[in-house]
């Protein structure tokens, strides 16, 4: 496959920063680490570190959050083969420490409380704020955008979060429900866009791993993130802000092309713990995965009636048959359907290659177009849902290196245009968003939970592993909070759960269908 990737060399460093917690005349002297690094000349190294952790997270988070949880729950990938390490209880009964670790690793970037690490984002906000050493309204706006995107991901995985208190040094931050968090995130994005204003280039260059210091691309990303948040909350109970936010977002610049994609290149020169799919794949059969039957059948024409040229970019044929074969998700390891990995399609080699490594696609132009299609479909801005729908399909196919001829054939097919009732068209848009979110498991899982498409049936047949007491043989709705949070901030967490619902995988989030 042919994916155009801008490769930035990662700045290697080991940085320890102290978060200010009081004011004394000799504060700086008292709090200086004699063994620490020299004072920063600019925010570049810390910004790079934060972006790598947020957008291209560690092997632990990539493996658990993206592969084992998100991509499997969304039925993009499966572990239904002999020799896997992740059959049956993994991700359910056997995976609670993975739920906890994803929370601790992610939240440590925001706040100093949950796992006793200083959050990169908290320090960046201090450094670029009005009293910071590198005060800059535009840079502060960029960091606000990064903070919102990380917290949105955490909230969509778990539910209530300490949004307002996070990173402020509050010892026991108060958890806020999603119906409060979502409008606050939109407020922060509006603030960030206002702070960036007409600024053009930060001068940080490659230290900004996302956009090379282009402030206007950050601004378009913020507006696209605003649209996504508002669309996600569109049908949620008690929502009274999304209609206005959607209307505002679609009337301002959004991601304009695949050049605006938020994509972070993985660097094979980094430690294995900082690498992505390739490092996980290198563990051999036990750590690997195969294509899910549901995704393959949406791409091979079985479900949508038209073969999708992205199938050859997403997957390699099964070794034994030479055909594209997906496996069901959630099978009991004792089922006769669980056979050799060579009987199933695996991810395309480019996704699991060691060098060059496959990048992390976080927010794409294709997604921005599908969001606009939904807004137009429901009369919230724009007038041509089908044009945005087709633009989204084209953008996704171009991102994955599909030829122009194949794109035109697909767009000319029934699957390439919206048709039917409003609900039929909503299903089409949702399924194409789900297909386009391939390799971004958390987002694909959120799409399924929020829209109900594609429909993922309950796993009650004997061929499936019984997840009673955990996911209760249904589509998992969320991850479990960390025991660290119960230990350090249990009272506030328990208070949040009284309103949100039990800390179980079956508890639906505020915006879930």
From TrEMBL:
Pfam families documented for this protein: SusD-like_2 (PF12771)
PROSITE patterns to which the protein is assigned, alphabetical: PROKAR_LIPOPROTEIN
Tree of life domain: Bacteria
UniProt cross-references to SUPFAM superfamilies, sorted A to Z: TPR-like (SSF48452)
Stored InterPro entries: SusD-like_2, TPR-like_helical_dom_sf
Protein name, as recorded: SusD/RagB family nutrient-binding outer membrane lipoprotein
Organism: Fulvivirga imtechensis AK7
